[in-house]
Amino acid sequence: MNSALIVEGGGLRGLYGAGVIDFLAEKSISFQTLVGVSMGACNLANFASNQPKRNLSLPSHFIDDSRYLSYKRWLMGGDLFGMDFIFETIPTELDIFDYDAFCARKSRFFIVATDCESGEAVYFDKFDSREDFTQILKASCSLPFAAKSVKYGGKTLLDGGISDPIPLHFAQKQGAEKMVFILTQPKEYKKSAMKFAFLSKFFYEDALVKTLKSRHERYNETVLEINALEEKGEIFIIRPSSPLKAKRVERDREKLKAAYKQGYSDIQDRFEELTRYLEGVNR
Predict the structure, then answer these.
(1) Is 201 exposed, middle or buried (0-12, 13-18, 19+ CB in 10 A)?
(2) In terms of DSSP bridges, do strands 3-7 and 178-182 run parallel, antiparallel, or are they unpaired?
(3) Cβ partners under 8 Å of residue 257, min gap 6
(4) Taking Cα atoms as reference points, which of 33, 27, 69 lies closest to residue 52?
(5) What does the pLDDT look like over 118-165, one tens digit per residue?
(6) Beta strands at 121-124 and 33-37: parallel, antiparallel or unpaired
(7) pTM of the predicted model as reported, rounded to 2 decimal places
């Protein structure tokens, strides 16, 4: 019996997932399949390289650094988040990402991105080099309107959360019999339609515009589906026990740390329930 850990994005709200993952790492919980979307993929990359502490330390340390986050740069036509700084400078010079340990992992690792031309999700699990891995991870985290698209493998890519924010069906296709989901919104949350969606036609291909306009419907439908599976005991969902104060773009260190602590606390409170759910899984 195999297992999968699926982690959604949510920008810096994803510090909640970082807390959950840190606790799982401390308890030596492993999964055969890892599927990450946007910030969720970053969290899982550090989990796979046995460096879960990086998930909290990076934004906590660099949040006030304009190379990390800058509205001025964004208003002048650049990225809101300094993508090259975050995905190239930090992991190779300032807080080293152990790529060798990542490559030595035993789990299958999938990163979700969105194809700008088709508007459909693309799932990557082959990383021929560190540069390839970096480009794919960067693409999965490139938020629409806030970041430039990423060219890779003949495709133009953006944030995976646009097309498949909670990749339930993809995880099912991988044959996982036990699935654990980490979400960043409480159970009662419903995503609203994107504000200023009409502007997307000035920036993106028609297919991507259509995907952007309908993503709230796709998200809410998936949440209803996983809620039903959770009630049947077929999957396990860990999500905020109360709404997070941290936003997608958050500069308040205390709110970031609070999101992390809430994730750690929520899974700690439900750890016995999780271990019962995972009984029989080959780790």
Answers:
(1) middle
(2) parallel
(3) 15, 56, 60
(4) 27
(5) 999 999 999 999 999 999 999 999 999 999 999 999 999 999 999 999
(6) unpaired
(7) 0.96
Burial readout 163-174 (b: 16 or more C-beta within 10 A, e: otherwise): bbbbbbebbeeb
Q: Which residue has the tokens 């809101």?
A: 80
Instruction: Tokens 């810096």: give the residue.
Output: 12
Dihedral angle computed from the Cα positions of residues 103, 105, 107 and 113, in that order, rounded to the nearest 10 degrees:
-40
The candidate with the shortest Cα–Cα distance to 10, out of 131, 166, 133, is: 166
pLDDT at 282: 53
Look-up: residue for tokens 């997932």? 17
Asked if 146 and 203 touch (Cβ cutoff 8 Å), the reply is no
DSSP string, the chain: --EEEEE---GGGGHHHHHHHHHHHHTT---SEEEEETHHHHHHHHHHTT-TTHHHHHHHHHTT-TTTB-HHHHHTTS-SB-HHIIIIIIIIIIS---HHHHHT-SSEEEEEEEETTT--EEEE---SSHHHHHHHHHHHT--TTTS--EEETTEEEEEGGGT-SS-HHHHHHTT-SEEEEE-SS-TT--PPPPTTGGGGGGTS-HHHHHHHHHHHHHHHHHHHHHHHHHHTTSEEEE--SS--S--SS---HHHHHHHHHHHHHHHHHTHHHHHHHTTT---
Of 30, 27, 22, 58, the residue nearest 180 (C-alpha): 30
Instruction: Please provide residue 78's backbone torsions phi and psi, each rounded to the nearest 5 degrees.
Output: -100, -170
